[in-house]
Amino acid sequence: MPRRTSQVFESVYLMNTNQIFRESIRVILLHPTHFHSISIFLFSPLSISLFISHFLIYQFPQITSLTIDIADHLLGYPLPKTLSKTIFHLIICFPFSITFSLVGRAATIQAVSDNYNRINLDGKRLLMRSGMVWIKLLHTSFWEFLIVFGLFGVLIAGLATLPKILFAGGIYWRMFSFLVVVGFLGIAFCVAFAHIMVLGNLAKVLSVLECECYGLESLFKANNLMEGRRQTALVMALLGTTSLRLVECLFEYRMGNGISVWEGPVLVSMYSSLLVFETVMNVVFYHACKST
């Protein structure tokens, strides 16, 4: 097995983003039926819930207004419309993101690992093994969520207090001081959020493939594992996030111009397939890091 593993990992040694992208396509094309089944049965519920939340916001604009009013009452300043929409999407998608989505990620990670280890893929075995590691993924996702929640807490606390401090310091343009704080905190928040997202993606792979590594430990190990490869990981995360966002924008555009009945399932399939592809890229990236 060590000899076989070393031979397999030669193909992923010192990969850049472009090579990881091509390797991920190659892996998926080797077993298209399995990966397509994972996208349909395990990732589709998350995609459907996301598009339903977009539909609800489009049909009932007062949902966003209500979120903004609540934030204005609590903070003294209204949240940006985009942020209020994001919060609503998170609330709607949360139940599916910790159930079907995590099992789908586990199944995809197991499938790629089995491919590299020359193990024949079996759908029933994949599902059973994915269910067994689901609790580990949930534990890891909990810590990731806790850190992200802390980031949002820092952001909201900063938005609530720093403009008042600037006002007390002699800056009397209330909106100007608020925009300065949003710009300053926004940049720091985006950088921190991107790094946590990258760590979370790799930590989930570690939680599935390494027996005693999950939760906070997997996040620390992921941070050490991708040392020297952060740029590659950030570019991968940017490509994945941008692709998913483009599908969301396409859905919003078609919804505003009269979406056809057949377009909904197609967009759900596209979004689910991108989630599978993103997970495959993370597994390939993991093997590239391990082989260094």
Structure write-up:
The protein has eleven helices and no strands. The chain has 292 residues and is mostly helical. It has one domain (2-290). The radius of gyration is 21 Å and the shape is globular. The two termini are 18 Å apart.
Largest sheet: none
Poorly predicted sequence stretches spanning 5 or more consecutive residues: 1-7
How many angstroms separate the termini?
18 Å
Mean pLDDT over the residues? 85
Number of helices: 11
Task: Give the class from helix and strand content and strand pairing.
Answer: mainly alpha
H/E order of the elements? HHHHHHHHHHH
What percentage of amino acids are in beta strands?
under 5%
How would the global form be characterised? globular
Query: What is the percent of helical residues?
Result: over 70%
Number-wise, the strands total 0
Compute the number of structural domains: 1
Radius of gyration: 21 Å
Keywords: Membrane, Transmembrane, Transmembrane helix
Transmembrane segments: 35-57, 87-112, 133-159, 171-194, 265-286
Protein name: Gustatory receptor
Organism: Xanthoceras sorbifolium
Brief characterization of the structure:
The chain crosses the membrane at residues 35-57, 87-112, 133-159, 171-194, 265-286. The chain is built from 11 helices and no strands.
Q: What key phrases describe this protein's structure?
A:
single chain, mainly alpha, globular, transmembrane
How are the elements arranged and paired?
Elements: H1 2-9, H2 17-30, H3 32-59, H4 62-75, H5 81-97, H6 100-116, H7 123-168, H8 174-209, H9 216-225, H10 230-256, H11 263-290
Helix pairs in contact: 2-11, 3-5, 3-6, 3-10, 3-11, 4-5, 6-7, 6-8, 6-11, 7-8, 8-9, 8-10, 8-11, 10-11
